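Changelog-adjacent note: as of this version, every example in the card shows the full chain rather than a window. The one below runs 186 residues end to end.
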Amino acid sequence: MTDTHLAGDDRARRRTERMKGKAAGEYRQEAARLRERADFLDVYDYFLRLAEEPFSAAALSERVGAPLAGLFCLQAPLEIFLALGLHPVRLCAGSQIAQQAAAASLPVLMCPMLKSFVGHTLLYENAFRTFQTVVLPTTCDWVVKIPEIMGEDLSALHYMELPHYKDTEKARTVWCDEVFSLVAAL
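Full-length structure tokens:
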């Protein structure tokens, strides 16, 4: 390797470490803001402490005593995961720092939630590899293209196609089929 290549690797590693520090600060700042709210209850502190820790799927799985299932949105019924012995985890709900980490390699108009996911994956290599599954609702074209955008084989990915309308017989049938498909995949 050339000295220039090594210097580039070193710069990238330092940038990643800076971004990880900023991400941790972002979570701590948000937790502090939530603790200051008038409606804050002490029982919430447990969850805020979890959010303040650097993300580790393996550590979380060990803490909850169950394999993890990643969810982007809450369209997938949580009861299914719990009934099958999986612990549902909402993924990357909009971290600004994670979005910045991925911004250079993603389209500008891409969904912020998915930018967070890609950025989080860049910051914490293999962060989602220990998840038994990641369920993606097909709410937009960006979601469908996420494996292509990331350039990775996300074999544990399960797409959940959501009907656009909920008040028709056809939509109810599609929804039931998707829920049964999810159970079969899990």
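Structural remarks: The chain has a mean pLDDT of 81.
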